Amino acid sequence: MMRLDRYLVTLGVGTRTEVQKLIRAGGVEAEGTVCRDPGQQLREGASLRVRGEALDTRLMRHVMLNKPAGLLTAARDRKQPTVMGLLPPAYAALGCMPVGRLDKDTTGLLLLSCDGELNHRLLSPARHVDKTYCAVVDGPLTGAEVAAFATGVALSDFTALPARLEILSSSAVESVARVTVREGKFHQIKRMFEAVGRQVTALHREAFGPLTLDAALAPGQWRELTAEEARALYEAAQMEVHQ
Fold first, then answer.
1. How far apart are CA 21 and CA 125, in angstroms?
2. What letter does residue 225 receive in the DSSP assignment?
3. Can you tell me the distance from the alpha carbon of 218 to that of 223, in angstroms, rounded to the nearest whole number?
4. Which positions are annotated as active-site residues?
């Protein structure tokens, strides 16, 4: 159970002072009845209308976003735009946060969730949740780089876990490869390629665990996960589904 005013604040309707004024003015219906008591107790998922409009009262949400280049993967930043600006304010109010990070210039599949434990487990190397990227690099790729990635690339501060490198095309000028890693450390894939003498010129995440980026999502577009997709994520994290 939750107080009506707290529920509305959590759903991003306004500040506590704003929603209390709204409630006392008769602007909120709870379960079909106008409620003027900010302290009324409500169950999660209760029917609410604000100024006559039905309110989505779900507290748990999971989002698939096709991240465009140029946005920070962060909850907020004073100087630069972030991926949260692509979502309605209610999602930030609910604590729907990115699962891991994509670099500012990296594009593709970004997951966001209100479930902090799910977020934590999906990012733990111990869970072996794969992340797959398409990388464009300068210069050729050969079996030597495939073998190096499969062994584990030594970097200055750690040795990356073995990763799968699949060469999609290779030339003296440019190569395209699919890379699957179990970690997600800062600039990891770029640093792994740099360690074998190649510079990444473009990086796009195609898949995260059991999920593949929805081809219908243009850069900057998003949608909530289906029940089946959310269930698959919880299974990958070895958790029970939190609806």
1. 47
2. P
3. 11
4. 103
**Which contiguous run of DSSP H or E holds residue 97?**
strand 97-98
Measured CA to CA, the distance from residue 149 to residue 164 in angstroms comes to: 6
The amino acid occupying position 54 is A
Tokens, residue 214: 């929805």
Distance between CA 235 and CA 229 in Å, rounded?
A: 10
Q: Are 126 and 180 in contact (CB under 8 A)?
A: no
What are 85-125's pLDDT values in tens digits? 999 989 999 999 999 999 999 999 999 999 999 999 998 87
131 burial type by CB count under 10 A (0-12 exposed, 13-18 middle, 19+ buried): buried
CA distance 83 to 74: 7
The whole-number pLDDT of residue 217 equals: 98
Are the C-beta atoms of 228 and 118 separated by less than 8 Å?
A: no
Which segments of the chain does DSSP mark as H helices, in order?
4-10, 16-24, 89-93, 116-123, 143-151, 188-195, 227-236
Cβ contact 73:95 at 8 Å: no
Distance CA 207, CA 133 (A): 7
Amino acid code (one letter) for 43: R
Q: Average pLDDT by consecutive 10-residue portion of the chain (243 residues)?
A: 94 94 96 95 93 93 97 92 94 93 96 95 85 97 97 92 96 97 88 97 97 98 97 92 67
The candidate with the shortest Cα–Cα distance to 127, out of 45, 236, 207, 30, is 236
